[in-house]
Design goal:
Layout lengths: L2 E10 L2 E10 L5 E5 L10 E8 L2 E6 L20 H12 L4 H17 L2 E8 L15 H13 L2 E8 L21 H13 L5 E3 L1 E3 L7 H10 L5 E5 L3 H11 L3 H8 L6 E5 L5 H10 L2 E4 L1 H6 L7 H7 L3 E3 L9 H16 L13 H17 L14 E3 L15 H7 L8 E4 L2 E2 L3 H19 L4
Parallel strand pairs: 1-4, 5-6, 6-7, 7-8, 7-9, 9-10, 10-11, 11-12, 12-13
Antiparallel strand pairs: 1-2, 2-3, 4-14, 14-15, 15-16
């Protein structure tokens, strides 16, 4: 059955358009997107406010939603990414498949409300608590897929190659026992996920990091993997950069771009500590970068050179990563505010041909969404998946705001209300009763994981 939506305003590839009629087919794709339709058809849902395309959350570790807010006390004289990681492993080494589904479903509902309609799961939590493989190696992956179905969000599963603890540490640590995979394992997982026929589930592959995978294994994975995105954590921490320099004589992105045939499949996650020369090399390859502003701030990673990434034309996308924030508006705001604080200027990420900082960042994140998640097309355009966000016209942040400044206010006048409704593949997916049931299961899982402190 055709789903029709008529919006007073909608963000199309060229920006805002008025009186837009959108039609989704039975295949869950936009069949037509037509501006300047003076009146809505009788069977169309009328959106008096604005309609936006959903964004892809290009980097997620769903189980870490159970850790959000649980590491905000300094428990030793020094606290940084590495001490956070050791505490995070306490969750990684306890969570069961049932708890994973409950935690991920809650996260995915929150991501939908925050404007994401597809999430890329950088999935390395493969084995049982004792480190032994499950009878079905995809047990934890299926828990994530079930959670995505529970919530109604689209999912790109990225099983991760993870085989060593560091550049000079050929084995995993005991607290990394659930992560162990080979290149062949990852390829087999990708193929099974792709062949599963699950609705709105796609498959790619991931490499945890240069420190966690031997060069030969990376080559084997890239050569053997089927079509789909290839994600990798890279240059997130200065310690990682120093270790890579000591081991290879090159910086991480420099080494990757010289040793491997980077192309449009590759998504470089964080890429925080990147030089201009490295950014230029990524741009020449066609690869993308995934920036995770709230997690990078929470972990003290540092600030990337956003201006150079934007100027280079590299496809950029946004990830919520550790899920201290689950709303792309907050991510874009923090992306800009970090640059303002570092450079002591305003509207750093605007451009002469795009004076709206919010519009420029949103447009770039929208353009980077398709390759990050393994789609050919994304947004409110023919042939793209029929996803959409209904803006709350009564949001206090938007009251009295001129329509041309709506994105500015959505991003920079906070806090903003959740989106009123969300469409994924032609279906409206926000359901209060379902959200309540998912929330109850999440609370139960949190009590099991954390005891009464939850």
């Amino acid at each position: 059955m055709t789903q029709r939506v008529w919006a007073a305003r909608a963000w199309l590839p060229a920006g805002w358009h008025e009186r837009v009629l959108l039609e989704a087919g039975d295949d869950g794709l936009w069949r037509s997107v037509t501006p300047d339709v003076s009146a809505p058809p009788a069977d169309a849902r009328v959106v008096d406010a604005a309609l936006l395309p959903g964004l892809v959350d290009a980097h997620s570790h769903a189980f870490q939603r159970a850790f959000a807010g649980m590491a905000e006390r300094r428990e030793a004289e020094h606290d940084d990414f590495w001490s956070w990681r050791d505490r995070m492993y306490a969750v990684a080494n306890r969570i069961t498949p049932e708890q994973m589904r409950a935690v991920a479903a809650q996260l995915y509902v929150e991501l939908l409300r925050g404007g994401y309609t597809q999430v890329c799961e950088f999935h390395y939590l493969h084995h049982a608590v004792d480190g032994r493989p499950y009878a079905d190696p995809l047990t934890m992956a299926w828990a994530l897929a079930d959670a995505a179905a529970d919530a109604g969000i689209g999912l790109t599963l990225l099983p991760v190659l993870y085989e060593r603890a560091g550049f000079a540490k050929p084995a995993l640590r005991d607290d990394q026992r659930r992560f162990a995979t080979s290149a062949d394992d990852v390829v087999a997982m990708q193929r099974r996920i792709a062949a599963s026929g699950r609705s709105n589930v796609r498959a790619g592959v991931a490499i945890h990091s240069l420190r966690a995978a031997a060069p030969a294994s990376i080559v084997r994975l890239v050569d053997q993997a089927d079509a789909g995105p290839i994600h990798i954590h890279i240059a997130e921490q200065t310690g990682e950069v120093d270790d890579c320099l000591a081991t290879t004589g090159q910086r991480p992105i420099e080494w990757l771009s010289r040793q491997h045939r980077l192309d449009a499949r590759w998504q470089l996650v964080h890429a925080t500590h990147a030089t201009v020369a490295e950014i230029d090399a990524v741009a020449a390859s066609g690869a993308g970068a995934v920036i995770c502003p709230s997690t990078e701030a929470n972990l003290g990673d540092g600030l990337t050179d956003v201006a150079s990434w934007l100027a280079s034309g590299v496809p950029l996308s946004i990830g919520s990563d550790s899920h201290v924030t689950r709303d792309w508006r907050e991510e874009l705001r923090l992306l800009e505010y970090g640059q303002r604080l570092a450079l002591r200027r305003r509207n750093v990420n605007a451009a002469s041909d795009q004076p709206s900082t919010a519009a420029r960042l949103f447009a770039r994140a929208l353009r980077g969404s398709a390759p990050a998640a393994g789609f050919a097309r994304w947004g409110l355009l023919n042939g793209a998946r029929a996803d959409a966000l209904v803006v709350d016209a009564k949001d206090p942040a938007l009251l009295g705001i001129d329509a041309s400044r709506l994105l500015d206010a959505l991003v920079f006048s906070s806090p903003a209300r959740p989106f009123v409704d969300v469409m994924v593949a032609g279906r409206w997916v926000i359901d209060a009763q379902r959200e309540a049931e998912i929330g109850t299961r999440f609370e139960h899982a949190m009590r099991e994981l954390w005891g009464q402190s939850a």
